[in-house]
Amino acid sequence: MYHYDGYDQAFVAARAAEFRDQVNRRLAGQLTEDEFKPLRLKNGLYLQLHAYMLRIAIPYGTLSADQMRTLGELADRYDRGYGHFTTRQNLQFNWTQLKDVPDMLDILAEAGMHAIQTSGNCIRNVTTDAYAGVAGDELIDPRPTCELLRQWSSLHPEFAFLPRKFKIAVIGAAEDRAAMKFHDIGLTAYPGVDGGRPSYDVWVGGGQGRTPRVAQLFEAGVPFERLLPTLDSMLRVYNLHGRRDNKYKARIKILVAELGLEEYRAEVKADMEGRDLSVFDVAGAEYDRIAAHFDIADVPAEADVRLEAEGDFAAWLDQNVTAHKLPGYAAVTVSFKAPGAIPGDATGEDMRTLAALAERYSRAELRVTHRQNVVLPFVRKADLKALFAALVEAGLATANIGLTSDIIACPGLDYCALATARSIPIAQALSAQISAIEADARAKGEDPSGPTINISGCINACGHHHAANIGILGLNKAEKESYQITLGGRADENAAVGEILGPGFAAEEVPAVIARIIATWREHRTANESFVATYERVGKAVFKTAIYEEPLHVAA
Amino acid sequence: MAKDKRLQGPSVLTANEIMTGAIVYWTGDDWSTDIAKAERAGPDGRAALEEIARSEEDGNRVVGAYLMALDPATNLPVLLRERHRLAGPSIALPSAA
User: Fold this and answer.
1) Residue burial A253-286, b: 16+ Cβ < 10 Å; e: rest
2) What distance in Å separates residue A98's CA from the closest CA in chain B?
3) Which residues in chain B touch residue A414, judged by CB atoms under 8 angstroms apart?
4) Which chain B residues in 22-51 lie under 8 Å from chain A, judged by CB atoms?
């Protein structure tokens, strides 16, 4: 993985020192809240429903064992003993005190981490496939591109005050495991013509929120040399024309829709032609320097192992272990979706356990997934059994990655100042109910898989509800929580926005509704048909009838 | 006078303490984390509380000060969001498990 050099280290240390000075001036009354707010937001510090919240960047979801241990230390020393892995592959602390933030940022800087641009109208943390660099089906590791983009976009003076926030995702495989088409800009990287630096397909105008859009193809086959010039001009045109009069119409998806893709393309091309692009000539050498950090040629070869497995270990191998590009290795995903658990929440102790296991079994490297789990990317197959035993010991061996009980949920109204309803209790109730059904299916030798469920506590859609097979959106109807269901969304390479099923439901009705939706799918599916395939074949009306025709008989 | 009908009943002044972020309520001469100690104002007393909100923010003791409306029948906040803000997370925190 990428390790900071002296330049990076000095950069984040200087930034932490700058914020310490800003906090001191705030506490001394030299800065008003109006003056301080944009400064704290640029350092990831929000004022949430109950307290300040600090969002720490985990660039493209990759972190070292030492960094994970540092996060655990911060959880215990400065928070209430836990943190929350987000759908943006970041980590949030919910109970931060302003007076502690300068010390927290110093500790993070020491560990090669920061909270820069995790908020505000700037280019946010670049996200990617959590199996980047190790996935068996990968064309090229997208992370050198992610790191290049991190360096290009960090404190980029021209893009510090965009019309709205800006999210970029990069993938390097045909299968999209990063919801790439739901980003402002999405890139698919693949080996370039000379086999060296990558070329890219560039997608634009995806996003969720109140106006969900699947990204459109801006240009295919962009050679590496033109990547940064193209992105820079794409951002410049957006910065110039993006709407600043209405924050709900300020994202690039609205600009592309209003301007039309053709016109937007023409504007970007004109911008590129009219300027000196030689400033980007350094990118090639920098890419090569970065890529060397991600080279896995030194990983020792391992003999492939055939594992004898039964019971819980077999189920865990089926669900939580992913094919690796190196023989004799596997990528292991540690689930933070135990029955009834809070999606993505990890205690300081969990973080220390993960750090220790990564050191012992995964070349001291970890990943945060956008589905709020954690990956150990370099596990020798010969170590899988020992790792499983250690995870069982730590209570982290839930075997449900990619199953319905692997629910995404935002913090919702239990924490978030923007939320209109709670997400977490809904996730907890569903995960308990569905985990039991999955265990039952497995015991009968049946396939436990089913639709994905994502839950957002407001229309901003941090919980990716639009992109779920079954999406749940919590709303406030006359000061009561009401949950709207969407069906048919998907976050993969065939990305689609879910359709609203009908009128919303009370919180206590949601588990019965979801059970009925899943039963309807099972009733209509052909052998091995996925939820979305059945939904697209039979249509919304079948589900609507099944859900609304008979009363739910749920006690309020 | 508040135009919002929900502000026709009693209100309390609430904010976040600047250093810690803790939710606090104005008691009449200071801030407390205990809403039971909060000074309640009817429609006529709201202007004075709003004045205190401004001066306390200007004095950098609290951030985000505003009037929170209470339902006179239940003494609970009128708004769903405020009820959750008052009660704290409705779930067991992971570190308590």
Assistant:
1) bbbbbebeeeebbebbeebbeeeeeeebeebeee
2) 5
3) 84, 89-91
4) 22-23
Lowest mean pLDDT among A183-187, A372-376, A462-466, B42-46: B42-46
Asked if residue B1 has pLDDT above 50, the reply is no
CA distances from A15 to A108, A339, A388 (A): 11, 41, 40
In sequence order, what E strands does A164-304 have?
A: 168-171, 185-191, 198-204, 216-223
Residue B2 pLDDT class (50, 70, 90 cuts): very low
Domain contains A555: no
- Find which of A52, A420, A423 to mutate to test the B interface (most B CBs within 10 Å of its CB): A52
The pLDDT of residue A369 is above 70 = yes
Do A317 and A282 share a structural domain? Answer: no
Give the domain CATH number at A64.
3.30.70
Enter the ipTM.
0.93
The DSSP result for B60-87, as a single string, is: TSEEEEEEEEB-TTT-SBSSHHHHHHHH
pLDDT in tens, A130-175: 999 999 999 999 999 999 999 999 999 999 999 999 999 999 999 9
Our measurement of the distance from residue B25's CA atom to the centroid of its chain's CA atoms, rounded to an integer in Å, reads: 5
One-letter amino acid for residue A533 of the chain: A
Task: Write the single-letter amino acid at A47.
Answer: L
- Look up residue A485 and give its amino acid: I
CATH of the domain at A269: 3.30.413.10
Distance CA A129, CA A141 (A): 9
Alpha-carbon distance B28 to nearest alpha carbon in chain A (angstroms): 22
Does residue B36 form part of some domain? yes
- B20 touching chain A per CB within 8 A: yes
Q: How many domains does chain A have?
A: 4
